[in-house]
């Protein structure tokens, strides 16, 4: 994946929709990984540095809400936008309580989608910064009381944090 683009994971069981949204977003300079199952999305996020995930709510197997929870549990800085079909708005609202950044109703307007992805990415950048600041605070505490070896070990861990 190229570093200068936003890494986007899209999961939707409607393959035609998935394909068209992938093409639209690739044309607008996103790196896109498109999968049709929640299970595959969770796997893909383990192997790729995803910034934002766009997750369909209704899918066979692991549904959107479960996918959202699994992604947030493993990658706390990642932001997730839920895609919802007609009649499942209540569940989508519920997802924002489970950590989704926002939700969009399908079929969604491309400009609306781009706006949601931009805002979600901004939030992701802030999340990462916050995590790094917390780690630096922790390091400063060790720097006061810890041994040089502890400090070096912590620095190495901070450097490796995803
Ligand atoms: Mg679906």
Q: Would you write up a description of this structure?
A:
- There is one protein chain.
- The protein has helices at 15-26, 38-47, 64-74, 89-97, 110-145, 148-160; strands at 6-11, 30-35, 52-56, 79-84, 102-105.
- The protein has 162 residues and is α/β, with parallel strands linked by helices.
- The protein has a single domain (6-126), classed as 3-Layer(aba) Sandwich (Rossmann fold), CATH 3.40.50.2300.
- Strands 2-1-3-4-5 form a 5-stranded parallel sheet, sandwiched between helices.
- α2 packs parallel to α3 and α5 (110-145) runs antiparallel to α6 (148-160).
- It is elongated and about 60 Å long.
Q: What secondary-structure arrangement, pairings included, does this model have?
A:
Layout: E1 6-11, H1 15-26, E2 30-35, H2 38-47, E3 52-56, H3 64-74, E4 79-84, H4 89-97, E5 102-105, H5 110-145, H6 148-160
Parallel strand pairs: 1-2, 1-3, 3-4, 4-5
Helix pairs in contact: 2-3, 5-6
Bound molecules: magnesium ion.
Magnesium ion (MG) binds next to loops.
Outline:
This protein has 162 residues and is an alpha/beta fold. It has helices at residues 15-26, 38-47, 64-74, 89-97, 110-145, 148-160; strands at residues 6-11, 30-35, 52-56, 79-84, 102-105. The protein has a 5-stranded parallel sheet, sandwiched between helices.
CATH superfamily, please? Response regulator
CATH topology: Rossmann fold
Number of domains: 1
Low-confidence stretches: none
Helix content: 55-70%
Main sheet? 5 strands, parallel
Please indicate the percent range of residues in DSSP E strands (runs of 2 or more). Answer: 15-25%
The strand line-up of the biggest sheet is: 2-1-3-4-5
Discrete helix count: 6
Question: Element order, helices and strands?
Answer: EHEHEHEHEHH
The CATH class name reads Alpha Beta
């Amino acid at each position: 994946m190229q570093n200068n683009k936003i890494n986007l994971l899209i999961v939707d069981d409607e393959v035609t929709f998935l394909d068209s949204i992938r093409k639209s977003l690739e044309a607008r300079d996103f790196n896109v990984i498109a999968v049709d199952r929640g299970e595959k999305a969770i796997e893909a996020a383990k192997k790729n540095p995803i910034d934002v995930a766009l997750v369909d709510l209704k899918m066979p197997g692991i549904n959107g809400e479960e996918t959202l929870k699994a992604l947030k549990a493993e990658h706390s800085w990642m932001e997730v936008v839920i895609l919802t079909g007609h009649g499942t708005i209540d569940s989508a609202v519920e997802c924002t309580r489970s950590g989704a950044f926002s939700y969009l109703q399908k079929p969604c307007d491309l400009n609306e989608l781009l706006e949601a992805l931009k805002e979600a990415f901004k939030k992701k950048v802030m999340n990462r910064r916050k995590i790094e600041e917390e780690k630096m605070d922790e390091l400063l505490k060790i720097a006061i009381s810890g041994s040089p070896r502890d400090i070096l070990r912590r620095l190495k861990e901070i450097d490796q944090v995803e």
